[in-house]
Amino acid sequence: MGGLFSRRRSHSEDGRQRGRRPPKTVRTDDNDRAILDLKVQRDQLEIHKRKLRVQVGMDEQAARRCIREKNKQVALLALRKKKHHEQLLDETEGYLAKVAELIGSVEMARVQADVVSALATGTKALKDIQSEIGGVEYVDQLLQDNADAQAEMAEISSALTGAGVPEDDADCLAELDRINEELAVDATNRIPAAPKNPLPEVSPAQTKQGKVTKAVEASPATAEPQPAT
């Protein structure tokens, strides 16, 4: 039975260990270890300072008790111990101030080192980009070449635009005559043909009657007379 339970316990522990995530590895360098040592020393000084404060309080209580008991020698001894502990407390507080200042200086130095490293990386990247570009002279040369190419293209365009056809070109003159003939034929085809039969003669009376008829048709219609009331 004991072996069975032990095997079950070992299997359950193995399962829990397999289910756990592996701990993250944190890289540390000498600066990290130095700051860690300083902080450990600071914590130890804090503990020592608290102990000294407790001891100072106990010395004062002992001196008061001896004074109430009229034991002057023991009271003086307790006060001397209190003074000694107070001196140690002052020294400890001074050490704490120095350690805290040193921790701040080291951390600030690390920040400055990171800033300098970032500046160095950025400067190197900027120089690499400038080397890829080719420098100011190369850019000026590119701009000058571009301007020259644009000017040359403008000259070519101007030459192509101004290149006319000579006035005595035979092919162009023949094309002009052909177009004129086509236009003349089109104009002739649009004129209506004259009637083949002669028009009937119109007498003066018919002409006069036709004019009167046209005048009556052009005049407005007269209103009918209203019946008298």
TrEMBL record:
Coiled coil residues, start to end: none
Gene coding for it: CHMP6_2
Region (Disordered): 1-31, 187-229
Species name: Perkinsus olseni
Extent of Basic residues compositional bias: 1-10
Stated name of the protein: Charged multivesicular body protein 6
Cellular compartments annotated: Endosome membrane
Any single Pfam family the record assigns to this protein: Snf7
Cellular-component GO terms for this entry: ESCRT III complex; multivesicular body
